[in-house]
Design a protein that fits this description.
The chain has 419 residues and is mostly helical. The protein has a single domain, classed as MFS general substrate transporter like domains (Growth Hormone, Chain: A), CATH 1.20.1250.20. Helices cover 74% and strands 0% of the residues. The protein is globular and about 60 Å long.
């Protein structure tokens, strides 16, 4: 099979797994459990906790000790086991630990899939900046397919979403062992420092101002991503409690409405090479930050009836908000570092976005919502919640241009000689 087609299938299943439950776990949680938003934030923070250390560890492993595609397969097989176990758990503490274990296995596969793809493309002399975004688009298609599968089968609030994810995770784990070989590039340990031997070279990127600032703001944007993942579907589900909106399609199929965000992703992913070459990473990330402001602001004033257009527009804007820092960020790193630390550097990026960023977004949002936005009847003040999130994104957007002063373009030929 053509290498691009093989990577397309990998990306499709990679994000089908996540899409099966990531957006709808909030609906499952609040419909079936009686725990608070703070408890939910703790459960949702498992992504952040695991992403703080696992992508970096697995990145080091594939740079130095094990083929990336093999570790990728092992992680997905183990993840399938934990996903299958989740519906069997009723105790909140146990649920937290099982989901955390699942995230320990899943989160590093996000960066591992990128490592496998970039390695395979470069071995076949394929331009990653030009050809990876269309391949990655199929990951978004997989996410959409999962959302529609769960929604149309009316499993948004049932445990079946986890069984669906488990089955695909097992299939991808087995498929991974057939992917192109991605052996470690750093074998020789002679005359190397302890930092080299432990595979910690990527962390030296923090000594370079452009990388340090890039990683810090990636963390802040990771928090914004966590907010929309955690509360987007729950926000739409809550309209069911309002008589004026009951029976509307946006309320009956909220996951399908949310999937518009993923359709938008497919368009903006394809636009990334042009924007990166034309404007550079600085302005692409700034555009992303401003898009997050619109994403949250439109949610604040939208509703499933005459305000449905604002919800739909918010979902369209999401594609730009997500892709212009997540996909562009991985390409920026790939074209600016040496191949020997490819896995470690991608793991570091994932750690900042889905680790520290997601953890900060989870805990802070849960505490803020419980303290300031729970109404006397225990419903949530959603306009206040979304406007607070919009203000957060706006502050980041205002500060960023002054902190990240230089414009760095992303072109395949550009490499740092030393990191």
């Amino acid at each position: 099979m053509n290498v691009k087609l093989r990577l397309i299938l990998m990306n499709f299943m990679q994000f089908f797994i996540w899409g099966s439950w990531l957006i709808t776990i909030g609906a499952y949680w609040f419909q079936n459990k009686q725990w608070s938003a703070t408890h939910f934030a703790a459960i949702f923070s498992t992504m952040g906790i695991s992403a703080i250390f696992m992508p970096a560890i697995t990145g080091i492993m594939v740079d130095k000790y094990i083929s990336a595609q093999k570790l990728y397969g092992i992680m997905h097989i183990l993840g399938a086991c934990t996903l299958f176990s989740l519906p069997l758990v009723n105790n909140p503490s146990t649920f937290f630990w099982v989901l955390l274990l699942n995230m320990v296995f899943y989160m590093p596969t996000l960066s591992l899939s990128i490592t496998v793809a970039y390695s395979a493309l470069k071995k076949n002399n394929i331009d990653v900046v030009k050809d990876f975004p269309p391949i990655r688009t199929w990951g978004t298609v997989g996410f959409i397919a999962a959302l529609w599968t769960v929604s149309l089968s009316h499993n948004e609030t049932t445990p079946n979403q986890f069984y669906i994810a488990s089955a695909v995770s097992l299939a991808l784990g087995l498929y991974a062992f057939t992917l192109p070989q991605c052996p470690p590039l750093s074998h020789n340990s002679n005359n190397k420092s302890l930092v080299d031997l432990l595979g910690l070279n990527a962390f030296k990127l923090f000594k370079t101002p452009k990388f340090a600032i890039f990683f810090i703001f990636s963390m802040f944007l990771g928090a914004a991503l966590q907010l929309t993942n955690a509360y987007g579907d729950t926000y739409l589900q809550d309209f069911k409690k309002i008589a004026a909106y009951q029976g509307l399609n946006a309320v009956k199929y909220p996951a399908i409405i949310m999937s518009i965000s993923q359709f938008s992703e497919t368009v903006f992913i394809l636009a990334i090479p042009f924007f990166l070459r034309k404007f550079g990473i600085k302005y692409v990330m700034l555009i992303s930050m401003l898009a997050w402001v619109l994403r949250f602001g439109l949610f604040a004033f939208g509703n499933p009836a005459d305000g449905l257009w604002m919800i739909i527009l918010s979902c369209i804007v999401y594609g730009m908000a997500f892709d212009f820092f997540n996909i562009s960020g991985s390409l920026f790193i790939e074209t600016q570092i040496s191949p020997e630390i490819r896995g470690s550097a991608q793991g570091l990026f994932m750690m900042m976005v889905n680790g520290f960023g997601a953890l900060f977004g989870s805990y802070a949002s849960g505490l803020i919502i419980d303290k300031f936005f729970i109404l006397p009847d225990q419903s949530k003040n959603w306009p206040g919640i979304w406007l607070t999130f919009a203000a957060y994104a706006l502050v980041i957007a205002v500060i960023f241009p002054f902190a990240f002063r230089n414009k760095y373009s992303v072109i395949p030929e550009t490499k740092l000689q030393e990191v």
